[in-house]
Amino acid sequence: MFMDNPNTGQPSAPEQPKKEQKGSGILDKIQELGQTNVPDMDQSNIHCMTVVGQIEGHMQLPPQNKTTKYEHLIPQLVAAEQNPKIEGLLLILNTVGGDVEAGLAISEMVSSMSKPTVSLVLGGGHSIGVPIAVASNYSFIAETATMTIHPVRLTGLVIGVPQTFEYLDKMQERVINFVTKHSSISEEKFKELMLSKGNLTRDIGTNVVGTDAVEYGLINEVGGIGQALKKLNELIEEHRRAQGEIMQ
Questions:
Q1: Domain that residue 85 falls in
Q2: 183 is a catalytic site residue
Q3: Residue 179: burial class (beta carbons within 10 Å; 0-12, 13-18, 19+)
Q4: Is 72 an annotated catalytic residue?
Q5: Over the stretch 13-58, which tens digit does the pLDDT of each residue have?
Q6: Which of 3, 63, 148, 158 is most buried by a 10 A CB count?
Q7: Is residue 17 part of a domain?
C-alpha cells in the first residue's frame, strides 16, 4: 500500500516486511546450549559434541562456573542417533568432572549409540569425565592431557552415617564397572590408581598423563583431532559396509 510522503506530497514506496536475522536460531543455540545445530548433510555427516568445564547435574552451579549441562547433551545424543544424515559422533572432552549420576547418564547414552563414536581428551578428562571418555567405540588422548582417577566423594567432610558411606561405595562400584567394561584396564589396576596415596596433594588418587593412560589400557591411543577424525571416518566406512551386508 502506498502512503503520501508528508514532506513532498508524493506517494512513498511500499513498506518492506522486516527480514528475520539470518542465523538467529543458530546464535540462540550457541548462547543457550554452547552448541551449534546438528549439521546438515551439506556440511558434515559427523556431529561434534563437547564436554567442558564442570558437568552440571541435578544441582545448578554458580553462574561464574564454566559448565556442561547434561540436560543439554542428552537431547543432542538422541537427535544424532535418530538423524539419518549423521553417521558418527565426535566427543571432545576438557572437563574437571562433576555430578556422578549425570556423568554416568551421558556415558550410558554414548555407549549405547548404534552409530560409530570416537572420543578425544584435550587438556583434561578428570573424575567422572573418565567414564565419558571410555564410553566411545575408540578413544584418543592428547600427549599433554591428563585424567584424574579418585574415589567418589561429596564435599570432603567426614561421613558420619553408615548408609551414606554404603551409598557412595555402591556408586563408586558403578563407575568402576563401567570403566573396566568399556576399556582394557583391569579392575585391580583401576582400583590401585583410584586409591593410590602420595600422587595428589591432601587427597588420594592418581593423575594419569596421556601416554600413561594408553599404557594402562584406559585410552586406546595418543593423538589429536586429525587422528580422531581419521579413525571415526574408518569406523563409519565399516558401519556402512556392515549395513550394506545386512540389507542384501
A1: 42-247
A2: no
A3: buried
A4: no
A5: 555 555 445 455 655 665 565 555 554 445 789 999 999 988 887 7
A6: 148
A7: no
